[in-house]
Structures are given as structure tokens and as C-alpha cells.
Specification:
The complex is a heterodimer.
Chain A: E1 5-7, E2 10-13, E3 19-24, E4 31-37, E5 43-50, E6 53-57, E7 65-68, E8 75-79, E9 88-95, E10 103-104, E11 108-112
Parallel strand pairs in A: 2-11
Antiparallel strand pairs in A: 1-3, 3-8, 4-5, 4-9, 5-6, 7-8, 9-10, 9-11
Chain B: E1 4-6, E2 9-13, E3 18-24, E4 31-37, E5 43-50, E6 55-58, E7 61-66, E8 71-76, E9 85-91, E10 100-101, E11 105-110
Classes of the chains: A mainly beta, B mainly beta.
Chain lengths: ~110, ~110
Amino acid sequence: EPEVTQTPSHQVTQMGQEVILRCVPISNHLYFYWYRQILGQKVEFLVSFYNNEISEKSEIFDDQFSVERPDGSNFTLKIRSTKLEDSAMYFCASSERGSGGYTFGSGTRLTVV
Amino acid sequence: GEDVEQSLFLSVREGDSSVINCTYTDSSSTYLYWYKQEPGAGLQLLTYIFSNMDMKQDQRLTVLLNKKDKHLSLRIADTQTGDSAIYFCAFSPGGGNKLTFGTGTQLKVEL
């Protein structure tokens, strides 16, 4: 069964450093997403991406965040200058159509120290 | 804004049925979803229901939708220890392509 692959599974970084979280969506999917889950809290939408541009973003997704699809297979989330409160599990997802039935990756646990 | 509430915790005995409930405020979603999250893992789509249906059955899973009361439930028949996980309801506010998740219900299955 096709999977969404995320790397690394766990990243520890110092406050103020830049991090790039990587995702390989399912190959025939056209819509890509990032969500995050702070420990013990809800899963929150960050951003959706379609046709090489952001289609929607939440208020969490401020200027410190950016997404990119640098080639035909990868989808990345960059946090420019990490803060302690960015510590969370970050999930990538993709879907064939714009509604529902998303496939999620297993997540990257980001720890900012 | 969107608000999706679930009870935090449910404990059942193996072999019993589990019922996980979800209430929401925004009724514009075309589909409503149930996701399962096992410890340390991602979110697995379990099942979903189209908003003009009131029930959907899929093997051991039954989804009930009461649009009038804005209430969604997931029933797991013959609950097994492997069903222990956190269960999230989710929907797409305004029928768009982002998901809003509930707070999650941790299901614990005891022998």
C-alpha cells in the first residue's frame, strides 16, 4: 500500500536554528499538507499546497515557516528560526483530490532545546 | 470558528463494544472522518461518512451521524487489545480541503 514517508523521525535542534522537515508524498497525489500536534494537544492544520503554491494556511503558519516542493517527489517544511514552542510532532499528508481521504506520514518529532 | 469535542478517555473490556462520540459546531463538511493514532505512529484513516448519510458500516466499525444534533459516533464491535489507540474525529469546515480534528479519545482495552 502506498505510503507517505517522513524524515527524520526525530530531530533535536537548538533554539534559533533552522530545520527542514522532509516528506515524500504518494506519487500520484496532487495535494500536500502539513499538520502539527503539540504533545497532549489537538492535531492542528498548518498549510496546504497545490499546483506549486500554498492554497491555504493557518495563523500558526507565520513568516518563520515555509514550504517547498523542490523536485517531483519531495515536499519540505522549513522553520527558519526555531522557538521552544515549535516542539511538536509534525505530520505530512497527501491526497489525490482536495477533499478527505488523506494519507498521513508517521511524523517527525521536533524537539527544540 | 470550528469546535470539535470528544471525551478524553474510554476504557472497555476486550470483546465488548466501544462507542466514541464527537460533537461539532460547523455542519458544512461534505465528509466526516475517523482517524486512529497508535502510540508513536501517524494518523490512520479508519473510515468516513458522507454528510447526507446517517449510518455507515464497515466490518467491525459503525459510524452514526446525527446532523440535527451535530453528533458523530464510532462504534467498534468486539473490541480487541489492538484497538487501543487515540481516535480522532475530523471534518473539513466549509467543505474545504483542510481538516479540523477533535481533541481525541484515548481508548484503552482491558483483558
